[in-house]
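Q: Please design a sequence for this.
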């Protein structure tokens, strides 16, 4: 961890007469190891957190697709598929929640930029083989930074909403496999998860 974040803080606290803490700059060296390799962009040269300056980046169309799975178990799966959950239509409410989640990503993730989304899609599919809900989300924007976090936030918030709406029937529900599946645009271009 020291190679990423620098030396751990001293265990002794320095104080002045008015009991204020003194912060010392660390001698952090960026984890960039070669010209082609990228380090952690949210960490500055001295180890401090920073919001990335995207002003020099090129504007491009950016799209990201993410997914997750909510394992319900047979009893809850049957309730959801028959639309018999007391709180209402689980899949419709979760879809709307996922879309709202994508729109609020920068409020939830401290160093994310507030971006203008041009499109958000959230699809929820019941899987009777493992009694789950499979969730796929897509976010798109034309701008200077990617939409991966918005796509992942969309699917996770949709998954949390499924859990919230079904928790009265079972506490055994699991949200699993939240992951980025595909992204396009920006300097790094196209990327897909290998299956």
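A: Design:
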């Amino acid at each position: 961890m020291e190679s990423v974040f620098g030396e751990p803080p001293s265990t002794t606290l320095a104080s002045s007469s008015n009991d204020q803490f003194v912060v010392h700059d660390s001698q952090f060296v960026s984890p960039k190891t070669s010209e082609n390799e990228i380090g952690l962009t949210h960490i500055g040269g001295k180890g401090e957190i920073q919001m990335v300056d995207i002003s020099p980046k090129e504007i491009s169309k950016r799209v990201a697709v993410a997914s997750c799975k909510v394992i319900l178990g047979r009893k809850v799966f049957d309730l959801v598929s028959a639309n018999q959950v007391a709180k209402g239509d689980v899949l419709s409410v979760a879809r709307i929640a996922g879309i709202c989640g994508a729109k609020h990503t920068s409020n939830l993730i401290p160093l994310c930029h507030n971006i203008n989304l041009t499109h958000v899609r959230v699809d929820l599919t019941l899987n009777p083989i493992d009694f789950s809900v499979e969730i796929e989300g897509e976010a798109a924007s034309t701008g200077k930074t990617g939409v991966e976090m918005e796509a992942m936030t969309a699917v996770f918030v949709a998954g949390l909403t499924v859990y919230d709406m079904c928790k009265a029937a079972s506490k055994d529900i699991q949200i699993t496999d939240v992951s980025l599946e595909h992204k396009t645009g920006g300097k790094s271009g196209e990327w897909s998860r290998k299956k």
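Q: Thanks. Anything notable?
A: Residues 66-186 form a domain with the Alpha-Beta Plaits fold (CATH 3.30.70.640). The chain has a mean pLDDT of 84.
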